[in-house]
Amino acid sequence: MSLTKNQVASVAYTLKNSEGQVIDKASKDSPMSFIHGVGGMIPGFEKELEGKNIGDSFSLVIEPENAYGERNDELTQDVSREMFAGIPDEQLVAGAQFQAQTDAGVEIITIAAVNGDQIKIDANHPLAGETLYFEVEMLDIRDATEEELAHGHVHATGGCGSDKAEKSESGGCCGSCGGEGH
Length: 182
Known about the structure:
The protein has helices at 43-49, 146-151, and strands spanning 7-16, 22-26, 32-35, 57-62, 76-80, 97-102, 105-115, 118-122, 132-143. It contains two helices and nine strands. A hairpin with a 5-residue loop joins strand 1 and strand 2.
């Protein structure tokens, strides 16, 4: 079976940066699964996986414009320490990351520098401007369920409400599911 839109792909992969440092990986024992073609993955990754088959192993080089984009200096700014009220000073260090609600949704914000009461924050994706090097093995392909397509992501074997489904704090298997057994 060749991977096409609206199918679930399960892959093992190793992701490295241009210096050869491992950034992320998923093993055969704990693969990454996603619905192909619905925008849940970076565009270059989705494009390169289109038409791949179970058992295929391959290398990918994905340039920034097909990954997380180029760095944008306009996404950095100096803000007052007061913006971080309640956060201990030892957590306010260069490289620390947090999530912030923005007009574009939830984004990862990185502290770029701390200078007294001024903190430089960077809203670029942490991998913006990076060329990404993947080693990928296609482990499984299956059709996504109607429920997965409606929710926009893969559910655990058995679907929402099953004993095998991963549960959120609200009791459902995802924020969209809303509960047990549907």
